[in-house]
Specification:
Blueprint (H helix, E strand, L loop, with lengths): L30 H8 L50 H24 L7
Length: 119
């Protein structure tokens, strides 16, 4: 006969406040879960050693979270090319008119100076 005390069952009512699960948290996964993990798509990004990354790819993506699968990428649309008005037809016409005025002023100054160029 064994002299060691056998663990007794918990008194009724204790441990009943949380819903029962098939497996307790932190337990090892069952065979079906292991099969799903092993059968999942792999990242495949090249590592520095020249091999392929073997981490699971993010759902719906081709790469793992470390290699860009988790990011959403660039924002939609062309937000970097918002127009600022510098190249509108009105601004271009204004610059042409202004440059023509400068050229006219330079011609007048050249005529007054007797054809000598100013520096």
């Amino acid at each position: 006969m064994s002299t060691m005390a056998q663990p007794s069952a918990p008194p009724s009512g204790e441990g009943q406040d949380r819903p029962s699960r098939e497996r307790p948290r932190g337990a090892r996964p069952d065979a079906a879960a292991i099969g799903r993990m092993l059968g999942s798509r792999r990242c495949g990004a090249l590592t520095r050693s020249g091999g392929l990354c073997r981490a699971p790819a993010v759902k719906g993506k081709l790469r793992c979270r470390k290699h860009g699968g988790a990011g959403a990428g660039a924002p939609r649309g062309n937000r970097n090319a918002r127009t600022h008005g510098l190249y509108t037809a009105l601004e271009k016409a204004e610059r042409r008119r202004l440059m023509e005025f400068v050229r006219t002023c330079n011609r007048v100054l050249d005529a007054l100076n007797g054809g000598k160029r100013r520096r």
